Amino acid sequence: MEEFFKENYSLLTKLVVLIAAISGLFNYKKFANTIVKKFIIFLVFVLFIEIIANYPSYLISLNKYHLLDGMLIRKNHWWYALTWTTGSALFFSYYYRGVVKAAILKTVLKYLFWTMALTIIIIAIVDYRYIFSSFPVVIEIVSFFVVVLSALIYFIDVLQSNTILKFYKSINFYISCVILFWWLVTTPLVFYQVYYSNVDWNFIILKWQILLFANILTYITFSIALIWCKPQNN
User: Which of 175, 153, 149 lies closest to 102 in space, CA to CA?
Assistant: First the structure.
């Protein structure tokens, strides 16, 4: 089992992301006149993130990894910190502004967006090397709260409107449930990871198992929702 996760974790993750991105592209026309089209573009962006993130492996296979010796980008932590951790928080706080109807909730989402943006800007100015660290906990925490609060704001808006009568028909309901699940399950791993070294394979395999389970459930749910749900005008 340990060897299986060592060799296939990255491939399986990219596979489920690819399935979700393809599902989105095939259904893009169906959602072309709704806010969901931006979510589909985001899924394609996530696939791009995962492909580029493997650049250390690409260089190792070409015997060129030594070219990154002494460089801050030798590990791909910075790539995920900027594109996934920061990018996803910015996206969802922006995305839900086009979904919720209450003006005050839109304002809160706008402040959440700028909270994430200012956090990464301040960190870059004060100590840009922090972005390249293995455990950029501050970025992870701010991203977690921005994404979770954005999803909760969506649910609050649903409860305050007639949408509650047909919530199960909306793709945004499933998107919100899944992203809440993903962040609540995976974020604690960031804090535990600080206490383990790279040679502790028991923890690494457990972390991969949790992440893989969360990724499979998340992106397969996205795929099913894109196929099953009908478009709804904003």
Answer: 153
CA–CA distances in Å: residue 188 to residues 35, 137, 138, 201:
31, 11, 13, 18
In a 10 Å sphere around its CB, with 0-12 CB exposed, 13-18 middle and 19+ buried, how is residue 156 labelled? middle
If residue 78 lies in a helix (H) or strand (E), which one and from where to where? helix 77-80
Which residue spans within the chain are E strands per DSSP?
A: none
Q: What is the dihedral of CA 122, 143, 145, 228, to 10 degrees?
A: 150
Q: How far apart (Å, rounded) are the C-alpha atoms in residues 177 and 146?
A: 15
Residues 114-171 have pLDDT tens digits of 999 999 999 999 999 999 987 788 999 999 999 999 999 999 999 887 766 677 778 9
pTM: 0.91
